[in-house]
UniProtKB/TrEMBL annotation, chain A:
GO biological process assignments: transmembrane transport
Pfam families hit by this protein: BPD_transp_1 (PF00528)
UniProt name for this protein: ABC transporter permease
Domain of life: Bacteria
TrEMBL record, chain B:
Function: Part of the ABC transporter complex PotABCD involved in spermidine/putrescine import. Responsible for energy coupling to the transport system.
SMART domains reported in the protein's UniProt record: AAA
Complexes and interactors: The complex is composed of two ATP-binding proteins (PotA), two transmembrane proteins (PotB and PotC) and a solute-binding protein (PotD).
Keywords on record: ATP-binding, Cell membrane, Membrane, Nucleotide-binding, Translocase, Transport
InterPro entries: AAA+_ATPase (IPR003593), ABC_SmlMolc_Importer (IPR050093), ABC_transporter-like_ATP-bd (IPR003439), ABC_transporter-like_CS (IPR017871), Mo/tungstate-bd_C_term_dom (IPR008995), P-loop_NTPase (IPR027417), PotA-like (IPR005893), PotA_ATP-bd (IPR017879)
Keyword Secreted: no
Protein name in UniProt: Spermidine/putrescine import ATP-binding protein PotA
Disordered as annotated region, ranges: 1-24
Lineage: Bacteria, Bacillati, Actinomycetota, Actinomycetes, Streptosporangiales
Amino acid sequence: MTRLREKAAPYLLALPAWIWLGIFFVVPIIGLLWMSLMTGNIITGFQQTFNVAIYPEVISAYWEQILRSLGYGVSATLLCIAVGYPVAYWIAFHGGAHKTTYLLLVLLPFFVTQVLRTISWKFLLADDGVVLGPLKAVGLLPEDARVLSTTLAVVVGLAYNFLPFMILPIYAVLEQVDHRVVEAAYDLYASRFHAFVHVVLPLSLPGVFAGVLLVFVPSSADYVNASVLGGTNNTMIGNIIQSQYLVNNAYPTAAAITFVLMTILLVGIFSYAKALGTERVMEVQAG
Amino acid sequence: MAITTEETPAAHGAGPTGAPPAPAISLEGVGKTYRSGPGTVTAVHRIDLEIQQGEFFSLLGPSGCGKTTTMRMIAGFEEPTSGTIRLAGKDVTGVPPNRRDVNMVFQSYALFPHMTVADNVAFGLKRKKVPSAEIKKRVAEMLDLVELTDRARYKPSQLSGGQQQRVALARALVNRPSALLLDEPLGALDLKLRQAMQLELKRIQREVGITFVYVTHDQSEALTMSDRIAVMNKGVVEQLGTPAEIYETPATRFVAGFIGTSNILTGTVDTVSDGWARIGYGHGQHVLAKGDGTAPNEEIVLTVRPEKIRLSAEEPDANLSRIRGTVREVVYLGSTTHYTVRTVDDTDIVVFQQNSSDASNLAERGDTAWLSWRPEHSYVLPG
């Protein structure tokens, strides 16, 4: 009896999580798929017609926004690595006794909601706002210079919003790097640069790998940044999904685009994992 | 197989005049003081050491004695706050570790976890831009020397502790440094393996002829392997000498207590004659010791090793140190028996007696027995 209980315990403990995932993930996903194959409209109602043709339709209608979203996602991710890696490195190796404080500072802006933070950027970067205004006044920028409604604004906004998701996993891995291993590299004639390239960087790749996933997926699917900081030429696929659902009430179309985006992201992630070699990454962690 | 160093000892620092080669490592007044909160902590007090080419040299002492700091200063990981460090006669004070011709074997091995054994060993040669054909050859030779040829493609995490240890050794030795620094390299191994590795290290050192500086807190390890030992305590070198010198003639009370087992006796000098100080305990009991510089009525401390003492029922010869006591403990250890004997002035003296065919069961607990030893086996300690 007790043995049976012992065996069942892990499953019982996992049960709430399974129920949660079932109700709030599996059921909606199936519902979404079901919805995407319906036809009709909000007034007359939707009927299930297994309209598979919707998929080629939405892809040909929105491929431009899909590609743009992926492009923005990749750019924001690269920007996050460029900015986040040095920050994580500095906190892990030079943070001393104040590491927790620095991490808190990284996270502090994120206690404010994403929409509010993004709108603050809109205020700061307005054409005659606190940044551009004075620069134009002293003639450092031409009168028609602008940041808002450009690709730059959206990509930088995305990178800003998801930066902690890059910093934290990289920090967590760098923090685990044995300082004596780095010393061993110096001892074996490596310059600081070579010690970084041949020892620290390879050992931190699992963190970069995790950070890329955590930043790329949500930033590709984001719609807040494009709608607040972008212009009509910066529409992302997230904005299309949002307007199809909430403005046009074209539920099947919205559901189909959602599925296309999900599929692309999943395929992308798996090929990325395969290319980089998850096993190799995991091995480093085990070592 | 034989590994030879490229450079002969004479190539280091010795001029064409035929002067003796410069020591592999020399420390002149090297000290290290750390800032700690409002005050300072001195880890190493102005040490002077000369370590010769090809020597197996140990820094021995308890944890916190400054031995690891001293080694890290030689490697270049710490800068001394005073003094000069020379490698083969060249001043390297202030030179970073990657530009010093010494390599270190770390206590935790510090192998690169993401590289194979062969890549770990090749790391230093690649940084030195040695041609790849030669790297291949030297890595293969080195893996052969440490008997890990069949593990070349393994990752460190797939190896046992002893194998990782040997990779760490190979990774350092392959560079043919002018000296190899080893920081308690056997500390993580179990006793059997540690003893095997001690002999192995000694063999490798003989084969490659490179200067080894070995940091350890294990006195038997230091005695087994070293040509010379510096015993350190509280940031100073208490004694510098061969294992036999350090064991047989400890210079200070600390060394006597730290290396092996020592009996410490205190007493007041009665007479000094012909350079021998005599401490009398009454009833024909006395201890004799080489007493240069001692005077009657002076309080002295002296030491004698347990295996130098003979236990007997009958009264020993009067020209030996001899003292009587009650046997309080008898511990039979197979080849030897350890006796603890309490003397008239309540000092416990430990005696190791070989269990040879004619000398077993010399005494039992509660017996009264004589202890005797030759006068030259006790040493007067300072303070």
